């Protein structure tokens, strides 16, 4: 069994007590930093892609890199734990909700500028939109991400991609905000990109802006057709109606050689349609767990555990989980457990 990856992105600094929200003046102070971007008691199932999760005490949507920096400096000084999210397409929230401050990066940080083959992208930019912008500008290198429903920050943090490609290969540099509000500029080669891996999963920095180094597409129409084909194939292969979080398990190269991708072995073991509570293994693609309406995080985690156990018993290979779990305290963990 591969080593269990546990708490890997606790962006908080400790010392927080849930009962201290009331009367702490925290919300008022946060509104001084981001006047129109602070909401309280937000049902996470209302914003989460999986439609799962209890209430978040406080959700903040910064408008700029300066907002992120001031927020982090403030939260660090007050020793208040916080967690950063994008569009939640790779996250499972705790049924108990979230007692840490939730910083959501999105629309206000969605700028995209192009100079030659360099594309500068705000971390809140919607991935399919920027893939289309690149195509319209005749730039190649990001067609494979055209169907990934996430933000640029989430994509870079996860080093996501499709068609056996990852975004990391075209990242020239990343600007991020550290725990005390300090700004970092890092070359793509210093971002620790590996298969669905980057240093941002561990270092607690908030990605603010990404520069992509793209190629010139020899034929813009061919690029457009390629993207349409990718989209059509995704529509055929992936569940379209029920809420889900994309692939639940990562591919394991050793297992792939012997048994194929996670979906193939999960299907062979008879899991398609297997249900726990409101969570069900999709009949369309066995590496997807869908929410039939009333699924809880507990249901999903139990299903994940069952599948991992069965695959290990059958193949002696461990499948690492790609989806990340956000605990009530604001720890982001990969729910890999012993078999
Ligand atoms: C239908 C479907 C299909 C999918 N297909 C694919 C696919 O083909 N390939 C693929 O790779 N993924 C796929 N995914 C998973 C998901 O879309 C990607 O991982 C995506 O890049 C996550 O982006 P997000 O903004 O939703 O991030 P979130 O899910 O909100 O967060 C994911 C991680 O990134 C961190 N994060 C988010 N924003 C920032 C930031 N600004 N700074 C620092 N850290 C940040 C979060 O803390 C968290 O750890 C799919 C998901 C769905 C629902």
Question: How would you portray this structure in words?
Answer:
The protein has 9 helices and 17 strands. Strand 13 and strand 14 form a beta hairpin. It folds into 3 domains: 90 residues, Uridine Diphospho-n-acetylenolpyruvylglucosamine Reductase, domain 2 (2-Layer Sandwich), CATH 3.30.43; 114 residues, Uridine Diphospho-n-acetylenolpyruvylglucosamine Reductase, domain 3; 76 residues, UDP-N-acetylenolpyruvoylglucosamine reductase, C-terminal domain (Uridine Diphospho-n-acetylenolpyruvylglucosamine Reductase, domain 1, Alpha-Beta Complex). The chain starts with 25 loop residues before the first helix and ends in a 6-residue tail after the last strand. The protein has a 5-stranded antiparallel β-sheet with strand order 6-7-11-9-10. The protein has a 4-stranded mixed β-sheet with strand order 1-2-5-3. Strands 4-16-17 form a 3-stranded mixed β-sheet, with no helix packed on it. It has 339 residues and is an alpha+beta fold. It is globular. 27% of the residues lie in helices and 20% in strands. The site of flavin-adenine dinucleotide has 33 residues, from strand 3, helix 5 and strand 11.
